[in-house]
Amino acid sequence: xxxxxxxxxxxxxxxxxxxxxxxxxxxxxxxxxxxxxxxxxxxxxxxxxxxxxxxxxxxxxxxxxxxxxxxxxxxxxxxxxxxxxxxxxxxxxxxx
Length: 96
Description:
Layout lengths: L3 H6 L3 H7 L4 H11 L9 H6 L9 H5 L1 H9 L3 H19 L1
């Protein structure tokens, strides 16, 4: 490692292993996108991008916990149907 930039780019074995551990904030960010929570988020960036921009919590989780828990309790049927349709549409587009 000859320079400072090289030392920042090199990933150690420990860094690699640790980078694959689950992160609760990232899991909730992804779940927020699946459940369409960003449409009601207090953060303008999330609403504008139509996707959770993350952060501690993320913020929408703290404000709308029921939006995360209720779909899981109800079996996610509507969300599952929506994403099934999305996958089928994408699959059809990719066949062209």
